[in-house]
């Protein structure tokens, strides 16, 4: 498609957008009396209007039924989490028995590492990416220390080449080969939070497993954003937060995946709790743990129903649309944003925008990370004051994520005009 940097062209794309009606299903903040242009769905998604109905339902059941809500509410709390199995499995490319919801992201990664990081004196190293999200870095450090290893030795980072923004697949594979028999675990962010780079999860998973290592993925920036096929890629485990592209609310419950090949492995360690015990026998209060078959057998505690309600509202919206349609729009709107940035760059003398995110659509989702050469944090702050909600990362990067559920093509055009005006006013 040949793009044009005009309002009329942007409006014509919106008119053809099959998902345009969903924009009205979200609450937008307002700045200076105007609805914002929202680019931070990669940090916290907007609130779906239907969320309140789901939360109110739980509150009303609690008020009217009290403890009986566990069994007699419209959506009984006893098995509330089971409603996520089918829609989540479709979002991440899994079988319904391979996915579940519990806790929050880093908590779930720690718990999954109980099963999938059991180092020996000779097989103890973890491979991750350079500049992994800090929470992952802290997790790795504490895990290897817990097992008696030195993080400087046990944690192996795959680095970017000098002068390059992204990590090359061949360098990931080479590092896996180099670590070889010492490799216990590969755990990488499926989409890098800083650059927006999407890793080739299928190829990397196979490479790590070839050396007898487990391979897991932090899908915080991937779930609800990119096409995932976790079962078919033979991924051992994964976890993701729900409050970014899946719009479940701040700090909300995490989703997780455990491949079915591990479900019957009695030797695989896990931390146990009452809610992971055999559902049919749970109230017999038996002394020995008998895990639920499937991913739910990794659950530990009673589920936080008030947290799950907004998440359920969101995943049911995903079920209505499907990832394929979201990805079609994601690709088009991200490409249009990229075009607008390049057009503004051409029009303004002295402007120099470097897009760190790969240009290849197979290597990116809906995030563009833009290095603002010659600009500073002041430009970011002025964008925010002018109703463009974006994200700043040191030293000089703004992250723009046009989430396809609620961002419009006219938003992309309007952002370009605001950006141009603010630079000229400087």
TrEMBL record:
The gene is kynU. Catalyzes the cleavage of L-kynurenine (L-Kyn) and L-3-hydroxykynurenine (L-3OHKyn) into anthranilic acid (AA) and 3-hydroxyanthranilic acid (3-OHAA), respectively. Homodimer. Keywords: Hydrolase, Pyridine nucleotide biosynthesis, Pyridoxal phosphate. The modification N6-(pyridoxal phosphate)lysine is found at residue 244. This is Kynureninase. Residues 163-246 form the Aminotransferase class V domain. It comes from Flavobacterium helocola. The keyword Hydrolase applies. It comes from the Bacteria. GO terms for molecular function: kynureninase activity.
């Amino acid at each position: 498609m040949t793009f044009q940097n005009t309002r009329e062209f942007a409006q014509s794309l919106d008119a053809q957008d099959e998902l345009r009606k969903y924009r009205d299903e979200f609450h937008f903040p307002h700045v200076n009396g105007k609805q914002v242009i929202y680019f931070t769905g990669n940090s916290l998604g907007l609130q779906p209007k239907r969320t309140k109905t789901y939360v109110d339902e739980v509150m009303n059941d609690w008020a009217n039924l009290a403890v009986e809500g566990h069994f007699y509410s419209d959506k009984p709390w006893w098995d509330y989490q089971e409603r996520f199995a089918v829609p989540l499995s479709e979002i991440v490319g899994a079988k319904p028995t391979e996915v579940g919801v519990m806790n929050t992201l880093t908590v779930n990664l720690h718990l999954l590492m109980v099963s999938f990081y059991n180092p020996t004196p000779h097989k103890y190293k973890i491979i991750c990416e350079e500049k992994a999200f800090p929470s992952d870095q802290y997790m790795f450090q504490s895990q290897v220390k817990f097992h008696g290893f030195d993080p400087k030795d046990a944690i192996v980072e795959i680095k970017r080449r000098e002068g390059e923004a992204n990590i090359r697949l061949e360098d990931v594979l080479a590092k896996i080969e180099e670590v070889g028999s010492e490799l216990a675990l590969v755990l990488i962010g499926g989409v890098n939070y800083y650059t927006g780079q999407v890793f080739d999860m299928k190829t990397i998973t196979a490479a790590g497993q070839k050396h007898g290592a487990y391979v897991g993925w932090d899908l915080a920036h991937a779930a609800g954003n990119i096409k995932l096929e976790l079962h078919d890629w033979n991924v051992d485990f994964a976890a993701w937060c729900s409050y970014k592209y899946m719009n479940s609310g701040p700090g909300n419950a995490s989703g997780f995946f455990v491949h079915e090949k591990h479900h019957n492995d009695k030797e695989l360690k896990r931390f146990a709790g009452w809610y992971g015990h055999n559902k049919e026998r749970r109230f017999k209060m038996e002394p020995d743990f008998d895990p639920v078959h499937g991913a739910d057998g990794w659950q530990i505690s009673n589920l936080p129903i008030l947290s799950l309600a907004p998440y359920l509202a969101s995943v049911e919206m995903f079920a209505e649309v499907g990832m394929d349609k979201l990805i079609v729009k994601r690709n088009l709107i991200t490409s249009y944003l990229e075009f607008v940035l390049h057009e503004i760059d051409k029009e303004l003398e002295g402007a120099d925008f470097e897009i760190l995110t790969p240009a290849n659509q197979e290597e990116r989702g809906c995030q563009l990370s833009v290095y603002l050469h010659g600009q500073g944090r002041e430009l970011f702050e002025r964008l925010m004051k002018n109703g463009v909600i974006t994200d700043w990362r040191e030293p000089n990067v703004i992250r723009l994520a046009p989430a396809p559920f609620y961002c419009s093509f006219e938003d992309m055009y309007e952002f370009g005009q605001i950006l141009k005006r603010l630079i000229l006013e400087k």
